[in-house]
Structures are given as C-alpha cells and as structure tokens.
Specification:
Elements lengths: L2 H38 L3 H5 L7 H21 L2 H4 L5
C-alpha cells in the first residue's frame, strides 16, 4: 500500500468514528431532553420492562441507549435524506 492510500484509509476511518461519536452525542442530548417529559408522564418504567424491571432509573438508561442508537443511525444516513424537501 502506498502512503497516500494509507492516509486516505485513515481519514475515512477517522470520519466514521467522528460521525458515530457525534451521532451518539446528539442522540443522548435529544434523548435526555425528551426523557424528562417521559419521566413526568410516568412512562420510563415501560422502557425498564424491556429488561424485566419496573425501576424508572433502569427505564431512563434503556431510553438513553435507544436514543444513542437512533443518533448513530441518523448520523450514518446520507445527508440528502435528512434535508427538508422544498415543496
């Protein structure tokens, strides 16, 4: 492999890691804001039931994990898919 090819591969992997980390951060921020609303509504135990618990703290953790996954998926979508259509 040439040094140019190695650098391009390193840049691509760096971009992927950066994209995933930004997606996790965005998912956690958005998820934590909405989780407050879910806590007020008493819905966090419903998320805890996924792992056999009724504890709202467990539900909060589960909700944040789901939010992080959604953030990563959204960060990996082609950028054109997330832009608003001009109708």
């Amino acid at each position: 492999m040439t040094t140019t090819a190695i650098r391009q591969e390193q840049a691509a992997s760096s971009t992927l890691v950066s994209s995933v980390l930004h997606g996790v951060a965005a998912g956690l921020i958005g998820g934590s804001v909405f989780a407050v609303q879910m806590a007020v509504g008493g819905l966090l135990p419903m998320f805890a039931q996924m792992v056999g618990s009724q504890n709202p703290v467990v539900g909060f953790i589960m909700y944040l994990m789901i939010s992080a996954i959604i953030g990563v998926v959204a960060s990996r979508l082609p950028s054109g898919w997330l832009k608003a259509s001009s109708c």
